[in-house]
Design goal:
single chain, mainly alpha, 7 helices, 0% strand
């Protein structure tokens, strides 16, 4: 579970009664794609013939550019998560990261799911005894990728949801 019981209006678009503007929604989607793509190799090294996670990342970027509908990106995200379900470890988490990125078009708050699963992926793929340090490194790397316009929003979201996101944002 990566979503809170009570939805944060900052992650609900203006047209749905929240405060999130479209430009920031697109930035959240693009940041989620960057986080997921950074660990995609962990999936592709195990399942090189399965394009679903990569397609989810491509689709969320296409949505952010206005090239496809939200429903197409959301469907691609669901397919990536289906690819994850039959796996374990780093590959599973990497596919879930891609799936979470893909569904940001539908629910902006999934941006944190993409980041959290990416951190879980690097932790699961780390050598024995190094999981915590590589997880912290990944978290810091993700933060460096944040666009200024959404930086404080995402950092506050990490603080608020860290506990339900497996405490991966303690970096």
């Amino acid at each position: 579970m990566i979503l809170p019981k009570d939805r944060d209006s900052r992650f609900i678009t203006l047209r749905r009664g929240g405060t999130l503007v479209d430009s920031d929604h697109r930035l959240l989607a693009l940041w989620a794609a960057v986080c997921a793509e950074h660990v995609l190799h962990l999936f592709e090294s195990v399942q090189p013939a399965d394009p679903r996670p990569r397609q989810a990342i491509e689709q969320i970027r296409a949505w952010a550019r206005g090239e496809i509908r939200m429903s197409q990106s959301r469907a691609a995200g669901g397919h990536a998560m289906a690819a994850a379900r039959v796996l374990s470890g780093a590959a599973r988490h990497a596919a879930f990261a891609a799936g979470q990125a893909g569904v940001v078009a539908h629910v902006p708050a999934h941006e944190l799911g993409a980041a959290a699963y990416a951190i879980k992926a690097v932790r699961a793929g780390a050598p024995v005894g190094e999981a915590e340090s590589v997880g912290r490194f990944e978290c810091r790397w993700q933060r460096e990728q944040l666009p200024d316009a959404i930086r404080e929003l995402v950092l506050d979201d990490q603080r608020l949801r860290n506990e339900i996101c497996w405490s991966v944002f303690d970096c």
